[in-house]
Specification:
The complex is a heterodimer of chains A (500) and B (326).
Chain A (H helix, E strand, L loop, with lengths): L1 E10 L2 E11 L4 E5 L6 H8 L7 E6 L2 E3 L4 H7 L1 E4 L11 H5 L14 H14 L15 H14 L4 E5 L7 H16 L3 E5 L3 H7 L2 E6 L2 E7 L5 H9 L17 E11 L7 E11 L3 E6 L5 H8 L7 E7 L2 E3 L4 H7 L1 E4 L3 H5 L6 H6 L7 E2 L2 E2 L1 H14 L16 H13 L5 E5 L7 H16 L3 E6 L2 H7 L2 E6 L2 E7 L4 H8 L5
Parallel strand pairs in A: 3-8, 3-9, 6-7, 7-8, 13-20, 13-21, 16-19, 19-20
Antiparallel strand pairs in A: 1-2, 1-4, 4-5, 9-10, 11-12, 11-14, 14-15, 17-18, 21-22
Chain B lengths: L4 H10 L1 H16 L6 H26 L7 H18 L1 E3 L4 E3 L3 H25 L4 H20 L4 E2 L3 H8 L1 E2 L2 E2 H19 L1 H11 L1 H6 L4 H27 L1 E2 L7 H11 L11 H20 L4 H23 L3
Antiparallel strand pairs in B: 1-2, 3-6, 4-5
Helix pairs in contact in B: 2-13, 3-8, 3-11, 3-12, 3-13, 4-5, 4-6, 4-11, 5-6, 5-11, 7-11, 8-9, 9-11, 12-13
The chains are: A alpha/beta (500), B mainly alpha (326).
């Protein structure tokens, strides 16, 4: 259906893709696998017309094509559903689906009735039971994704590219998505599926293409492949899954949280977090699992002093009561937070590696009111070496590094504050397998050195792999505390809201 | 021998505004024999120094992704307060009280005026989460109105030689305003490059949420930035008032535009986080040289405005196309 021949794309001297050859077949789910920076997104941008300027050629239904714009690619029959959805929040589903392709009556007015009817048909087909008049802002992320798929179906796309479609949706929404994909397959659509989550690929994909360092390494049938096979092809060597030996000795309590509540910002009689109490021991890794909207991120934010006016709680660190009204108090007390959105909250992308690492720690680098730049550079160099951050130098702009290396910078800037308790929110989201394992290893090492660690994750395997103890949250409550031997069923059961 | 574009392109980009300035000077020099004279050189620098003072403060504001539209009015009020106090002092007939001001006292009062107005901007922006555009737009008209009230609409003149020395005097063969603006540039460059405050300003502009999570007290830094911007506008006001030996009620009108132009031509991004003080100085010099050149070449004032606008457009277009390849 879609064949790429010798695609090469260069950016200002950097080769992003080199002689990439691949074939996507109709009626199949074609997985594109590769580490971050392997060239997946560049390839997708070429296929969907974002980059009209490349070497090589693309054959679509046997005909050579070259799309000059995304619109041209869409009209040709290739739609892409980006990781960050491209919907306009305060327009209705109908208006979004028909944006730029509005139907008009013979008088040149919008034909709302026809558009609503067509939208209803599409939503029925995709089994989304909401009115076409609903504003997109009122939909859950998973539902918004379905709207994007409806948009692709409206223009009768033959190829639908999905970029990390499950990264922001809950498990039940993933099931819905997979059944939609299965239907699309039956309708002989070509699905191109990009994901880091290997489990998903084994479940969904029929064929795979592995990209590594901008080259197409191998392609073939997914059947008969194992996890290790795929990982070896991605990174070029095999990786060992890690698992921590559970310590049997008693852990001394480091953090004690009692009756933590957080009010809703608007509906103040409602609580987003309800009477949460727990402990984290010295050298202990506590994993917090929960579905979207369970309040995991809010819990970490509250502990870090981001919502001082809406919070009530008693927090003790090392047996001492602490009062956290702003992040500076939290840092002072010995807390650190690696936030969920590293590009926005974790880093100042436009600043260099050195400046980002030292940002939390400038006070200690001051001498007579001026910053000691020699010390600052030494600090950055130390972490670049310790955490194996791949960068041309500590003066490289953070924006130019891959996701895994950016996350290591965020870790560095917090480790530089010598925290007693490190809180991590989705520490490996959007990071390739290799960097993921390095980050796990680092977390284990830090715990061994006595740091308390609180990890929030929506990936069960991640929680199970590194935690000593698992807390499960649902709808703002702590619903269960489980040992690491707990089964996935047990954990999920505690995470699913009971009030449905 | 041919050098490929790739090798000297980074150098070109780094010094693009200096190169533009050089080309501008050579071009004007070729067209007018009065341009490359010592007297004209000092004249240009003295004229520029007011805009340099304001633009340095504006750069700090813009680096935090803000804007300060009030600098022109703050300049006028600060100058008028200093001039008024120096000339008339404070009279309270009811208490039979008269407070006279020395030149030094008047200068301090002028600087305080600017800083307080700037601080008020910062307070309104951080306390009520107002967009800087709106808060400083309000201050633009408030400060202008206060200037009119204070001066009753008439210039305050006859300020004495020791005050006018500030704007017209020379020291070691260099005009005093050039010393003052040069000193300010030096101090702020050090502040931005070598201190925690400078880092925080860049961090806030680059990503406010990341800076907040890193423990930066966003509100305090912003308060400081707007206070400094107001204080530097006051320095500009004192220089203008002293050079003219007169505080004009409509002094500094539309100066905010010249200073935003200097900041932008100097390569500072209006979305914050990227830029430099020295870039802004170059921007201010380019505008000053352009103004001076157009006057020397007898270009009509109307055309001068058109040319200036085109230069601003060109500068931003060049800057955009070069930063895209970062």
């Amino acid at each position: 259906m879609l064949i790429a021949e010798n695609i090469t794309k260069r950016f200002a001297g950097v080769t992003a893709l080199e002689n990439v050859c691949l074939e996507f077949q109709a009626g199949k789910v074609n997985a594109v696998i590769g580490e971050n920076g392997a060239g997946k997104s560049t390839l997708m941008k070429i296929l969907s017309g974002v980059y009209p300027d490349y070497e090589g050629r693309i054959l679509f239904k046997g005909q050579p094509v070259r799309f000059a714009s995304p619109r041209e690619a869409q009209d040709g029959g290739i739609a892409i559903i980006h990781q960050e959805l491209n919907l306009i929040p305060y327009l209705s589903i109908t208006e979004n689906i028909f944006l730029g392709r509005e139907l008009t009556t013979q008088w040149g007015m919008l034909d709302r009735k026809a558009m609503r009817l067509r939208t209803q048909q599409l939503l029925d087909r995709l089994k989304l039971t909401v009115s076409p008049e609903t504003l997109v802002a009122e939909l859950k992320v998973g539902q918004q994704q379905v709207v994007e798929i409806a948009k692709a179906l409206l223009i009768d796309s033959e190829v639908i590219i999905m970029d990390e479609p499950t990264s922001a949706i809950s498990e039940s929404e993933v099931e819905v998505l997979f059944s939609i994909i299965a239907d699309l397959k039956k309708a002989n659509k070509t699905i191109v599926y990009i994901s880091h989550k290997l489990d998903e690929l084994f479940k969904m994909a029929d064929r795979f293409v592995v990209l590594r360092d901008g080259k197409s390494i191998e392609s073939g049938d997914m059947r008969g492949m194992t996890h290790d096979d795929i990982i070896r092809k991605m990174v070029g060597r095999s990786v060992h899954a890690i698992r921590r030996k559970v310590g049997s000795e008693l852990v001394k309590p480091l953090l004690t949280v009692k009756n933590l509540c957080l009010k809703h910002p608007v509906r103040t009689q409602e609580n987003l977090l309800k009477n949460i109490s727990f402990q984290v021991g010295r050298g202990e890794i506590v994993g917090i699992f929960g579905l979207m909207g369970a309040g995991r991120t809010e819990l970490l934010e509250t502990l870090f002093g981001l919502h001082p006016k809406r919070t009530s709680s008693t927090i003790e660190l090392n047996g001492q009561k602490i009062k956290v009204n702003k992040p500076a108090d939290a840092i002072e007390a010995g807390l650190a937070l690696v936030p969920e959105d590293r590009k926005k909250d974790g880093l100042v992308l436009g600043l260099d590696v050195r400046t980002n690492i030292s940002l939390t720690n400038l006070r200690s680098l001051e001498q007579g009111g001026f910053l000691n730049k020699t010390k600052e550079t030494a600090l950055a160099k130390k972490y670049v070496a310790d955490l194996k951050i791949k960068t041309s130098s500590e003066k490289q702009t953070a924006r130019n590094l891959s996701g895994g290396n950016q996350q290591k910078i965020v870790l560095s800037k917090w480790l530089a504050t010598n925290p007693k308790l490190l809180m991590l929110d989705e520490p490996t989201r959007g990071i390739d397998v290799n960097a993921k394992n390095e980050i796990y290893k680092l977390i284990l090492q830090l715990a061994d050195e006595g740091m308390g660690i609180l990890v929030v994750s929506s990936e069960l395997p991640e929680i199970l792999a590194i935690s000593d103890r698992i807390l499960v949250m649902s709808e703002g409550c702590l619903t269960s505390e489980l040992s690491v031997d707990a089964s996935e069923d047990e954990i999920l059961k505690a995470a699913i809201p009971q009030t449905l | 021998m041919q050098i490929p574009l790739q090798t000297y392109r980074p150098v070109l980009l780094k010094f693009q505004s200096l190169i533009a300035l050089l080309i501008l000077c050579v071009a004007i020099g070729l067209l007018s024999d009065k341009f490359f004279t010592v007297a004209n050189g000092w004249n240009v620098l003295r004229q520029i120094s007011v805009n340099v003072c304001i633009s340095v403060g504006m750069t700090l504001v813009v680096l935090t992704a803000g804007i300060d539209l009030s600098v022109g009015s703050v300049l006028a009020l600060s100058g008028a307060i200093a001039a008024g106090l120096l000339r008339n002092g404070i009279e309270l007939p009811a208490n039979n009280l008269y407070i006279g001001f020395t030149v030094f006292g008047a200068i301090v009062a002028g600087l305080l005026t600017g800083s307080v107005l700037g601080g008020f901007n910062g307070w309104a922006i951080t306390r009520f989460n107002l967009p800087p555009f709106v808060a400083t737009l309000a201050m633009l008209t408030i400060a202008r109105g206060l200037t009119m009230l204070w001066t009753e609409g008439f210039p305050i003149t006859g300020l004495g030689d020791s005050f006018t020395f500030l704007g017209t005097g020379w020291f070691l063969g260099i005009p005093l305003p050039v010393w003052i603006s040069g000193g300010i540039v030096l101090v702020v460059v050090l502040l931005m490059d070598q201190t925690r405050f400078g880092r925080y300003v860049y961090a806030i502009g680059g990503s406010e949420s990341a800076a907040r999570l890193s423990g930066v007290n966003i509100n305090r830094i912003k308060m400081l930035v707007y206070t400094i911007a107001g204080g530097l506008a006051a320095v500009g006001g004192l220089l203008v008032t002293s050079r003219l030996d007169s505080a004009q009620p409509n002094a500094g009108t539309s100066y905010e535009l010249d200073s935003i132009a200097a900041v932008v031509i100097g390569g500072t991004s209006l979305s914050g986080g990227r830029g430099s003080i020295l870039g802004t100085v170059q921007g201010a010099v380019i505008i000053g040289v352009l103004n001076n050149g157009l006057v020397l070449l007898n270009v009509s004032p109307f055309w001068q405005q058109v040319v200036k606008g085109i230069v601003i457009l060109l500068a931003v277009i060049i800057d955009k196309s070069s930063s895209r390849n970062d």
